[in-house]
Amino acid sequence: MAAGAPSGPAGPDPVKARGLVKRYKEVLAVDHVDLNVKAGDVYGFLGPNGAGKTTTLRMALGLIVPTAGTVELFGHDPMRDGARALDGVAGFVEAPRFYPYLPARKNLELLAALDGDGARGRIDEVLEVVELTPRAGHRVGGYSHGMRQRLGIAAALLRRPRLLILDEPATGLDPGGMRDMRTLIKRLADDGITVLLSSHQLPEVQELCDRVAIVDSGRVVYEGALADLRRQGGAGYRLRTTDNGRALETARAQTGIHGVAAGEDGIGFQADEDRVAELSVALGRAGIGILGLTPELATLEDLFFRLTDPDAEAESASSAEALNELVEAP
Amino acid sequence: MSSVSAAPPAAASLPARRRHPSTLTVYRWELRKLVSQKRTYLGLGLGVLLPLIFVIVQVVRNQPAHGDTIFAQEILQSGLATPVLMLTFLAPFFLPLIASLVSGDVVANEDGNGTLKTILTRSVDRGQVFAAKAAAAITYAALAVYLSAAVATVAGIGAWGFHGLRTLSDTFVSAPKGLLLVFAAYTFFLIPLIAVASIGVLLSTVTRNSAAAIVGTLGVTLVLAIVSQIPGLEGVHPYLLTQQYFAWQGLLRTPTDWAPILHSLWVCALYAVPALLAGYLVFLRRDVAGG
């Protein structure tokens, strides 16, 4: 959970999907997806293109009808409860869209009118948050992609959401815009808004999210805490010694040490703590000084590819080993 | 967004239940959207232009208009004959075209641009959005009809004076009553036009393509017009939508012939109600995947 985020009001979870299925003729776009987004989560929703992320989000927002299963937002099913189910919920799927022939302020006035509940009085405030006040009188048709993304956030904030659903909010933004978007999402999460973030930006998810779901070919292949996932990915270590060549041989000779590979910044390997202790003793006996031995958790990117494309992961590992052998060959 | 430290609206103080907007609010915004689009004025502009061209040409010619109706022969005698004659000219194709321009576009355009998903993720139900869009399309059709009527009446009176009008029964009515009958004729012409707009809204919802919906709506009216010309199908003629375009002429008889008007009411309802109902049901359950 983002620092300082409250645990959220008691009550039904912000998002609870059970057995969600969407089939388009022969294509199974979403295959029995279960999601559990808890109050206060910054929840990452990951998957390769075509994995079914956007379709799932559309079902969550009531835009498309599930073939089977249910999704509830704070206990309300959009298919059953209509607009009531979206109370306290805001966001956008794919790019946020507006009326290009209307200025940004008029677009927000329209949306505020469709929100009711005094949303019109918040227009200046949300324009200020996304720094579009000076351009609020300009037609959206002339806006850049980044400005439209920001207007999308402003439109979402008009609803004073408790749950913010964002589909690739940083797509198409320049590095500065991406950083600002991350800062804004952090800020919103700190203010107690639950965020469901679909993203291709794995570093972004790693930085922002505390829980994730990874989908592949319409199925959830992992759902849970990001920290648990990284632990499950296996503890890795990076070793620097006074003689990396001999240390490499020593490590390979030890039982329980896996994935030994030399790199520019030392030797990487996986092992449990007892085996690491045995290796350090063995290195000492061999007269090899240890300059550094640091634990490394698997990156989200490693884990993502391991879960969604195990063949590519295996290929990548074997290529790395082959490269190592080639480099080490006399 | 470099200074994102500006506090966004707090979520903590949310009320448990929001007050949702009325369908009237959604309808008002549908009208505002129409007002903001250039293509809205294309149809209305033509509705203004055609009566003006007609009157200018007739003034220059200074002869009775061609045509076998009594109003064509009366054109130089009373300015009130102009709007009646114009309605006869515009009813079969032009006014249905104007109605289909907006009704065929009203849902499909938003679907294609992705703004449908924008409005459907706010605090309004799909039924409200559909009702507002259908009402806006019908409002536009009515506006086009009355605008055309107003221009034809003013131009006709300006050219040939505000005089009594000869009816289809070869009787005269006073100028004020004639004006009232002109207004009533255009109003009753709205009945089949609402049916056309309803078909447009249905096609706009189903096809998700503005051009297909507009052309499809005109295609439906064209097919019905062709059917009305096919020998041997006289039995179905009274139930064709295109046959109702001239029901208003019952008003211009003495005494008023209400039979075609009442017939038109229920025949047009047979087209409009199922179209709107089908459109509504499709809209309620359709996937919004555009944009």
* Neighbour order of strands in the largest sheet of chain A: 5-6-7-3-8-9
Which stretches of chain B are poorly predicted, pLDDT < 50 over at least 5 residues? 2-15
Compressed to H and E, one letter per element, the order of chain B equals HHHHHHHHEEHHH
- The helicity of chain B comes to 55-70%
Helix count, DSSP H or I runs of 4 or more residues of chain A: 12
What would you call the structural class of chain A? alpha/beta
Number of strands of chain A: 13
Estimate the mean pLDDT confidence of chain A.
Answer: 87
Low-confidence stretches of chain A: 1-8
Order of helices and strands of chain A: EEEHEHEHHHEHEHEEHEHEEHEHH
- Form type of chain A: elongated
CA-atom Rg of chain A in angstroms = 24 Å
Largest sheet of chain A: 6 strands, mixed
Main beta-sheet annotation of chain B: 2 strands, antiparallel
Question: Can you give a write-up of this model?
Answer:
- The complex is a heterodimer of chains A (330) and B (291).
- In chain A, strand 11 and strand 12 (266-270) form a beta hairpin.
- In chain A, 45% of the residues are buried.
- Chain A has helices spanning 53-60, 78-81, 104-115, 123-129, 145-157, 175-190, 202-208, 226-232, 244-253, 273-285, 300-308, 310-328, and strands at 15-24, 27-37, 42-46, 68-73, 89-92, 163-167, 194-198, 211-216, 219-225, 236-241, 258-263, 266-270, 290-296.
- Chain A is 38% helix and 25% strand.
- Chain B has one domain.
- Chain B is 64% helix and 1% strand.
- At the A-B interface, strand 5, helix 3, helix 4, helix 5 and helix 6 of A face helix 1 and helix 7 of B.
